[in-house]
Design goal:
mainly beta, 8 strands
Length: about 110
């Protein structure tokens, strides 16, 4: 878990199930914050987070700025599950572990 290794304590990466819960139970609003495109995701309790559309890395190249990919901690054979989004599209998917994708740590 990259988040726990880097930040320690109770910090961790979300699971596939937590990403699915975020997708299904929250309101997603495409917006720009401080010049960065992404989603403001608001939960049923009114709390929100901003997920930047930071693209992802393939080798040394940044792919598709304006597109977001966030890893989960849930593996799938040679792949791992993650959250994939752009304006108007949010889905949980699985992709190759070798691509550089954003980690959004959470804590209890």
């Amino acid at each position: 878990d990259a988040a726990r290794a880097k930040w320690g304590g109770s910090w961790r990466m979300p699971t596939k199930e937590e990403l699915e819960e975020l997708k299904e139970n929250c309101r997603w609003e495409w917006t720009t914050q401080n010049g960065v495109k992404g989603y403001k995701v608001t939960g049923p309790n009114g709390n929100s987070i901003f997920l930047p559309a930071a693209g992802y890395r393939y080798g040394t190249s940044l792919i598709n700025d304006g597109y977001g990919r966030f890893w989960s901690s849930t593996p799938n054979d040679y792949y791992a599950y993650g959250l994939d989004f752009s304006n108007g599209c949010e889905c949980v998917y699985y992709g190759g572990r070798s691509s550089g994708q954003t980690v959004r740590p959470i804590t209890e």
